Every structure is written in structure tokens, then in C-alpha cells.
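Q: I have 832 residues here and want to know how they pack in 3D. Can you give me a structure?
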Amino acid sequence: MLRRWRATRQLCHALVLLASIACTGFAHAAAAAAPSTATVAPARQAIEAVPAGEIAVQAEVDEQFAQDVVDRAKEPDPAPEFASALKKLEASVRDLAGRYKVNQLGAMHDSARDTLRRYWKLREQQLADWTASVRDISMRQSADVAEIASRRAKWEATRASAGISGLPPVVVTRVSGVLEKIQAAERAFAGPLNSQLQLSRRGQALQVQIDTALKEIDAAQANVERRLMSRDAPPLFAGWDTLMDAGGDELSVLKQRRDLERQFLSEYAEFHGVRLRILAVAAMVLLWLLLAASRRYRKQDVASRQLRADAPLLERPLSAWLLIVVAAFSYFEPDAPAIVRSVLVLLALVPVLRLLPAAEFAVVKRLPFFAAALYLLYKMNILFVGTQLFGRVHLILVGLLAILAVWYLLVRLSAHSLQGKATGYTALIRGIGHLSMAALVIGLGANVIGNVTLAAALTGGVINSGYAGLAIYAAAGVLRALLVQLTTSRKATQSYEQAQRRLDFAQGLTQLLRAVALVTWLVVTLAGFHVLRTVADALGGVLDHPLAIGSVSVTLGGLLLFFACVVASFWVANAVRFVLRDEVLPQLTLPRGAANSIATLSYYGVVLAGLLVAMLAAGLEASQLTIVLGALGVGVGFGLQNVVNNFFSGLILMFERPIQPGDTVAISGVEGTVREIAMRATRVRTFDGADVFVPNGALLSANLTNWTLADVHRRFDVTTGVAYGSDMPKVFAVLMQAARTTAGVASTPEPLAIFTGFGNSSLDFMLRVWTHDNDNWIAIRGALSLAVHDGLVNAGIEIPFPQRDLHLRSVAPQARAGLSVTPTPPTAGEEA
């Protein structure tokens, strides 16, 4: 894709240059000979002549422009410098091409062939850099040439117009003079543009050579993968003389490999010097941050240390730093020299082993150390050529040690299962172990019978896969701890909702990191077994299979990409909303509710953009999108009116902001705190702890009470009654004293005590107060009620209970006989 993009840019550049040269050639031809009327008439009809009244002014402007163009053309021509750089690059390409023959690529060691491919990629990057520099210069000059050609055509149309004959001779002479200066400016640029066009053609020819070399290397690699099942060396029982004759000059091959690696390293460091220095500075800054965090971590108590999720980063900062640097370098410098990558892998051995969680690897004890040593031993195959005797013996030795390691793993896992501690992961690892054992045994047999390519692929694949799994697991653990440290806040002021959102976001990042780690391990494993290209081609064939549903035609890969884009859009939208709502917008001074509206609308915008990208990625065209939108419109018309109504009601709530998360509201008999305004409904947390989802449409159509729209002030009343005959001024004093001494009752507005009327059994009073703590107003009301009660009791004021007077007019004889005391006639005001 990159090569096609660069080739397209170069083609556009060449077309611009050709157009400029064509304009220049046309100018020369026009100056040398008078064109026929039939030839120039169509062009003149499309170009407007300069009006007679503007000739003098326009002539001054165009003559000055032509002079500026001539001055710019006299500046030092960069073509010689570009030609020198291109000549040097051509020499380096010839030198690299002369280091090998095409028929030798298949016999090369895998690492040597990979180094050669990286070297050619460096040449491609150098050529792309040179091409970009030439294009920048050429585009500026081409713009001048195109502008001067346009002005020349306008003055030619003026000279050929019918009205020129009626003008004074001095004006006609001025027109001819302007044309001469414009043509002189065109001639001044003709030479530099020709030189740059020739340089561009040479650059394109060099690009073709580089593309050819990369295709030859890819073809050789594909050929190696195709001959995995064919014998490419004599069997080990063929005899000593036969085995020795199959080898070559190993020392010479190693010397050539050393010289190639050394030259590649030198040129790579020179070409990417700025980027490498930036990475080095970033690595030093990261080291300083980790060491500072580690010092603060060690000052904490043991209990606080055990609660930290980023303990691996802080307990072993140097190991964590080195592992992060290796992972970052592998990501940002995928085409770095193999020697640099090998050194970094060796440096990462210790951090990998130190950062592996001991509890999770307790079942296999010291097996990770043995796996690392085995990987280091396998990497020594660089000293041997794959088809030579010593290389095959080395491969057999490594294979036997690997079989011993896998056998030990299976024994430990079986013992673990017998103890009843087996899990799903244990069964998975046991299955991988059996497959690895089979691959190692087959590789050992293939080496004996002479299929060295298959033996190297199987043995190297198992060892590389095992160590890569350990390294990726350790690196993922470190990165996971780093992400948790960056995304999880430990502020005491954060609410439960904020803490939960941070935890959910950190868990989402962790799951994404695990998925990336798994895919990375699978790619490394397939590449180690030399089947990555085959699997990719087969998978590409399946994914590119078209699926026709009516007039809509998509591919399986397009559908998978569609679902992947949808999932990614929702994940990115959640991440954007989290960052805006909890990290960025709270630090800004915004109107009430604006932060939540911005975060939520950003979420909707990212989701909508993701859905559009997903549709385009699936291969849907504009005409097919109209079908989808039409179906959506039909669905809305038949049964989704309420959904659409609630969605747009939610948008209105976002812009109008009558409520926001955290407000205390009452709607349709539901009272509580708003937690979230979602796409369809708003979640309200009642005071009883239940979550009630109120449709957004109901919030706009029904009467909505928002207790905290403008502020958090709230008024409430406490009613009481005293016995008839009580001292009313004293009652007022007790009520006001209770209001002044109760915590949470606001002094402004002042409390107000009111006599409300004569009750059946009491004189009724009401104490009206305000509080600025809306969240705890119920507790404040309870405390105030208790203070009123205690104040009345301490003042000796009676709080009556309901009383009734009962008058008996007659009593049945049986009831009278049952009374222990003979009743006397009741008097007025006496209770019977």
C-alpha cells in the first residue's frame, strides 16, 4: 500500500512536470512561428483578453510578476544536489543488489533473508525521502510556470483581439513587450524543470528496482514455505563425507553476514537518527518517572503496597522500564536491524523472568527460566548455516532439550490436575503442550531424514512461541499496571459513581490489552512456524468471498470489519466520554450541565461516525446506504416512534439542560437523584436505593420538579401543637431557639415561626426554615423536630394528644349492673 501511494504521488508529480514542459514548448513554438487561425482560434475563444482600459495597469503587474519569476529562476539550482544524492542512492542500490544472487535467496538463513528485506526497506525509505524533497521544489516551480503560462495566454488573446487595431501604437508595443518578458520568464524555467523531470524518471526507475528486489525476497520466502514437506539435505545416516560435502564455506558466509549487518546498522542509525534520539529521550523520561514513583511507593506501609495494582512497576522499576522500552522499540521501529532487535531480546530476558507473576507460574516452578535459556541457546543458530552438519546437530540438541522441557510441563500439569486444582486454562495449556511435543518429535525426525526446513520451522516455532508467550505475558502485565495507574484515581473526593466509571474504563483497557497480546502472540507463533503467509492468504480468500443479499453485495471480511468497527466505535466513544467528563471538562469553567452535555453529545457523535465508517468499511455504496436508510425509515414509521421520540427528547435535554446528573428531581411519582441521561431513558436513583428508568419523552411532556436546578437550597416545615392555655410568646421563643441551634439550618433566609390556627386539641404552630444542604435535608428536619420537642418539654409546655368528650344519655340495666361504681350524673365539661 505504501509503495502504491508513493508511486501515485510520483506519477502525479510527473504529470505536472509534463504539463509545464508542454506549456513551455508551446510558448517557444508560438514565438518562433505565427500559428494558423484554425489552430489558435478555439483556445482564444476560452480566454478573455485584457480590456483596453486596463492594459496599462495589468501590464505593470504582469511584468513585475515575470521579473520575479526570472529572479527566482536565477536562484541556485537544487538539481545538482539532488542528482548527487540520487547518484549515491543508485550506487548503494547496485552495491546491495550485487551482494547476492536471486538463486541464493532460497538457501539463505531466515534471519539473513529478513535482514536483507529490512535493508531494502531502508533503501525504499531513503528514496521516498529524496522524492518528497524533489517534489516540494518542483511543485513550487510548476506553480510559477502554470501561472506565467496563463498570463501569456491572456496577453496573446489581447494581441489577437479585434480591438487592438484601434489602440495607439504605444499600447500595441506595450502588449508585445509584456509578451516578450513573459516568454523570457518561461525560458528561464525550462532548463530546471527539464532537469527535475529527468531526475524524477531516474527516481522512478530506481523505485522499480527496489520493488523488484522486495518481490524477489518475498518470492524466495514463499518458496521456502512451500518446500516445508520436501527433503532439502542428505539424511544424517548418509555418511560423513556426504554430510560434509553438503555444507559450504561457513566462515565466508558469516563474514558476509557480519559486514551486511554492520553496514545496515550504520546507515539505519544515520537515516533515523532524529527519531532514535527522540525515543531515547522518551525512555530516559520514563525511567525518571518510574524511579520517582518507586521511591514514593517504598515509603508507604505494607498494607498500602498490597492494595496497589501497579506494584510490578514500582517494586522493580528498572526491569519494568527495560521491558517497556523493548516493547516500544519493537512497535515504533519494526524494520530495525536484526542485530539491534537480538540485543534487545537478550536484554529483556532478565526483566521477563523477574516480572512474571510467581503465583501464577508456581505450578511449573523454574520452567520459565529454562525456557528463556533454551531460547537463548536456539538463537545461537546464527552461527550455523541451516543445511550444514553442525547446524543440524545444534538443532537436534535444542529439540531434545525442548522435548524435555515440554515433558516436564505436562508432568507438572498432570500432578496439578490430580490435586483437584485444574482449571480451564490448565486444560488449554495441556493441549498446547501435547501439540508442542508432537511438533518437536516430528521436527526431530524430519531433521534425521533430511527435511531441515521443516525441522527448523517446527523446532524454532515451538521455542519462539514459548518464549514469546512469556515475554508478551510479562509485557502485558506491566502495561496493564501502567494503564491502571494512569486511569484509576485515588482521590478521596471522588464519588462512588466516578470511582466505578474509572474502574470500568480500566477494565475495558485491560481487556483490549489482553486481546492485542493474544493476537500478537498468534502472529508471532504463525510466523515462527513459517505458515503466517499461508494462513493470511487462505484467510484473505475466505474474507474476500462475496455475499449477495438482493441488490446488496458484501464480503465476509466486510461484515467482520463492520462489526469490528461498530464495537470499536462504542469503545472509543466510551473512552472519549470518560476522558471529557471525568478528566478534562471538570477542570474548565463551564455553565451548569454543559460538561455532561458535551461529553454525552461527543459520545453520540463518535458512535455515529463509527457507524458510518463501519458501513463504508463493509463495502456499502451510496445507493445501498439509501436502502438501509429507507428500511430504517419504515421501521420508525411502524414501531419505533417512541424510541425516536425518546432519543430526540434526550438531545433536547442535552441542549436545554433542565436536569443534569446529580440533580434531585420528582417526576411521575418518582423522587430521587439523576444518575445518567442516556439515549432512550434517564436513570433516577430513588432515595430507597432503586434505579428507575424514566423515558426522556416523559421528562419533557410531564411536570418535572427539579429541586437543585438553580442551587441546592431547600425549604421545609416542622409542625407542632401545644395545649390550650400555653404561653404563646414562650412557644415562639422555643421554636426560634431550636432553629438557631440545629446544625444545617440556614440563617439566611431567617427561620420563621407561625401560629397556624386552633386545632381540636391543640394550638398549632409551624416552623419554616431553609437549608443549603439539600442532600441531607431529611436528617436536618429530623434533628430540628427533636430540638423542638426537647425545647417544649424543657420549657414546661405541654404537647397534647387528641381528646374527646363522651356524654352518656342512657345506660342499659345490664351495663349499669356491670359497673363497679354507681355512676353519678355527669356534669358539664366532665369526661364520662
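Q: Anything worth noting?
A: Residues 169-226 form the longest helix (58 residues). Confidence is low (pLDDT under 50) at residues 1-45, 828-832.
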